[in-house]
Amino acid sequence: MRRIRLTVAYDGTNYHGWQIQPGVVTIESVLNEALTELFGEEIAVIGASRTDSGVHARGNVAVFDTEGKMAADRICFALNQRLPEDIRVQDSCQVPSDWHPRKQHCVKTYEYKILNRRMELPDRRLYAYFYYYDLDLERMKEAASYLLGEHDFKSFCSAKSQVEDTVRTIYSLDILKEGDEITLRIRGNGFLYNMVRIIAGTLLNVGNGRMEPEELAEILKARDRRAAGPTAPAKGLTLVGMEYEPF
Amino acid sequence: MRRIRLTVAYDGTNYHGWQIQPGVVTIESVLNEALTELFGEEIAVIGASRTDSGVHARGNVAVFDTEGKMAADRICFALNQRLPEDIRVQDSCQVPSDWHPRKQHCVKTYEYKILNRRMELPDRRLYAYFYYYDLDLERMKEAASYLLGEHDFKSFCSAKSQVEDTVRTIYSLDILKEGDEITLRIRGNGFLYNMVRIIAGTLLNVGNGRMEPEELAEILKARDRRAAGPTAPAKGLTLVGMEYEPF
């Protein structure tokens, strides 16, 4: 028995998120079916990040165990033949049999994309949040600086979440602009439920003048979801990648 | 009666190109329906560029005549309310009643996008041509230089085309790279049927070593479609914009 790690990219538009749920198509269910077919044995992946409905990924991670003999680095190619074109496994390799993608220290990188112009652009409609109003990037950068480092991010966590420890570390939060498109690029040691989308919604409120950059300090202190801005739409969010320590 | 000019952006994925054809959905047919509904009179647009099935646009141009009284610069907003989200009119304005989008001098800009890496990326699958093999950009740039200026581009025109005058001028052909994505950006006074896609296919053959940059001179001289490279897929192509002289 070998444990295989996959790096998975997908366009989340047509999926009800990562996690298996009855009656709907998810990334996890499609991967399990393709792997089961490929190896002729029942296979169930363990995913690193259970992305929401409509969220995209370039580098989510999953592992599975198999008795199959196929060379580990060829599995991605064979698997892609059996996957729909909106899911593409980028890489496959063998890992130790106790390696678990949610039980390792890792740095996650997300990008949130905002299309900031007067008219929507059809070819970006599924990958960026269209935002009509002017945004002041300097204010957004100032606000972002309050979030760097270790903080209790309870205010930036969906009220639905039942997680107890809401302390996380953000290593960097860069705000980049290219043409009409703004990218919030955020790296951290873990993210709470909807955390990146709530950060994006809050920074948008600072950018359009509804909030002041300094308010971010109070929002953190409040430890209350209602203190932060709205949850920005799923389609702007991409899980870019996960960096694990070598085993 | 006023003549109104529209700047139209669309994701060509779900359309059988611009031009009306029986039994299929086209950009032109959807625009006509939405305009007819909006103004309550039968409206038929005249398009500048009849893009092929699967080709995208950020700035195609069309005109129509109407008795309607709506402010010209508001028409785009009212129209977008009635259009599917993969078509978005960027701008609307009044033009002289004899202004015709195919009978004016204009500079057209196209972009052809190539995703050059080992694995496909789902979120780029509809907007860039995935190309696995290594490409030498310096060779491609050298080849492109042969196409600049006024030439007979008959070798770069689909053999199906019946156009007689195949002389066109290319003002610039830039080859840019950002991460894994290569953009061929081409500006000219007009393009023959499939011309940009055949140029892209030919430059790919130079980039991968199958052709030499100097061969471009011979290909032009041949005036024969068979001398050039293959027609690159439609989905990589976007009509970026059309610059007309002020009226």
UniProtKB/TrEMBL annotation, chains A, B:
<dbReference type="GO" id="GO:0160147">
    <property type="term" value="F:tRNA pseudouridine(38-40) synthase activity"/>
</dbReference>
<dbReference type="InterPro" id="IPR020095">
    <property type="entry name" value="PsdUridine_synth_TruA_C"/>
</dbReference>
<keyword id="KW-0819">tRNA processing</keyword>
<dbReference type="InterPro" id="IPR020097">
    <property type="entry name" value="PsdUridine_synth_TruA_a/b_dom"/>
</dbReference>
<comment type="function">
    <text>Formation of pseudouridine at positions 38, 39 and 40 in the anticodon stem and loop of transfer RNAs.</text>
</comment>
<protein>
    <recommendedName>
        <fullName>tRNA pseudouridine synthase A</fullName>
        <ecNumber>5.4.99.12</ecNumber>
    </recommendedName>
</protein>
<comment type="similarity">
    <text>Belongs to the tRNA pseudouridine synthase TruA family.</text>
</comment>
<feature type="active site" description="Nucleophile">
    <location>
        <position position="52"/>
    </location>
</feature>
<dbReference type="InterPro" id="IPR001406">
    <property type="entry name" value="PsdUridine_synth_TruA"/>
</dbReference>
<dbReference type="GO" id="GO:0003723">
    <property type="term" value="F:RNA binding"/>
</dbReference>
<comment type="subunit">
    <text>Homodimer.</text>
</comment>
<feature type="domain" description="Pseudouridine synthase I TruA alpha/beta">
    <location>
        <begin position="143"/>
        <end position="245"/>
    </location>
</feature>
<dbReference type="Pfam" id="PF01416">
    <property type="entry name" value="PseudoU_synth_1"/>
</dbReference>
<feature type="domain" description="Pseudouridine synthase I TruA alpha/beta">
    <location>
        <begin position="8"/>
        <end position="102"/>
    </location>
</feature>
<dbReference type="GO" id="GO:0031119">
    <property type="term" value="P:tRNA pseudouridine synthesis"/>
</dbReference>
<feature type="binding site">
    <location>
        <position position="110"/>
    </location>
    <ligand>
        <name>substrate</name>
    </ligand>
</feature>
<dbReference type="InterPro" id="IPR020094">
    <property type="entry name" value="TruA/RsuA/RluB/E/F_N"/>
</dbReference>
<dbReference type="InterPro" id="IPR020103">
    <property type="entry name" value="PsdUridine_synth_cat_dom_sf"/>
</dbReference>
<keyword id="KW-0413">Isomerase</keyword>
